[in-house]
């Protein structure tokens, strides 16, 4: 874990910290992840840096093996409501997605480029799904990527560990919430 620097135009991207996702059983308590996400968001807002809050409202239409054994059924009405602890503000960018990653099929890249963002800091749930997919796309789009590994969790411990230990070091730098806030200056 060693984030070295943050670009002057860095954005925070928090993935799927919403009621329907934070209600899932996760490896690390979702309340702690939301609290760290809220601390990051407050620090970015204090410095006038963009805060992106991503929420998922549906899944991609493709057929998967996981769907066959799924619980199905309707989602609660508040499933996509962002966690209120994040303290959403009018200047925040809200991205609504229909796939795992926050870039595909959304205007996230356009929103970041309009603000001349060159780096993103990521956190959220689930590490191996929404966060990893977004990190891969951010890297492919040419952004510097920093991952707040204590501001993310997963429903599967091995998947979380694999992303944090094997995948993320290839996509960017990893560090703690406190260290990243410290880099903001």
UniProtKB/TrEMBL annotation:
Keyword Hydrolase (UniProt): yes
Gene3D superfamilies xref list: Isochorismatase-like
Keywords: Hydrolase
Presence of the UniProt keyword Hydrolase in the record: yes
Domain Isochorismatase-like: 10-176
Superkingdom, taxonomy of origin: Bacteria
Stored PANTHER family: ISOCHORISMATASE FAMILY PROTEIN YECD, PEROXYUREIDOACRYLATE/UREIDOACRYLATE AMIDOHYDROLASE-RELATED
Protein name: Isochorismatase family protein
Source organism phylogeny: Bacteria, Bacillati, Actinomycetota, Actinomycetes, Kitasatosporales
């Amino acid at each position: 874990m060693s984030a070295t620097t943050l670009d002057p135009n860095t954005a925070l991207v928090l993935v799927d910290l919403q009621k329907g996702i934070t209600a899932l059983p996760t490896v690390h308590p979702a309340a702690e992840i939301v609290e760290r996400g809220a601390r990051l968001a407050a620090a970015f807002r204090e410095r006038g840096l963009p805060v992106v809050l991503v929420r998922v409202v549906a899944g991609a239409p493709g057929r998967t093996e996981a769907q066959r054994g799924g619980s199905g059924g309707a989602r609660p009405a508040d499933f996509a409501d962002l966690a209120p602890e994040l303290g959403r503000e009018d200047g925040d960018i809200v991205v609504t997605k229909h796939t795992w990653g926050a870039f595909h099929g959304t205007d996230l890249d356009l929103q970041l480029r309009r603000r001349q963002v060159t780096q993103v800091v990521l956190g959220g749930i689930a590490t191996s799904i929404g966060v990893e997919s977004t990190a891969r796309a951010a890297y492919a789009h040419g952004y510097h990527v920093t991952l707040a590994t204590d501001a993310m969790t997963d429903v599967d411990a091995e998947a979380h560990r694999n992303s944090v230990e094997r995948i993320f070091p290839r996509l960017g730098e990893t560090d703690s919430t406190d260290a990243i806030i410290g880099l903001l200056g």
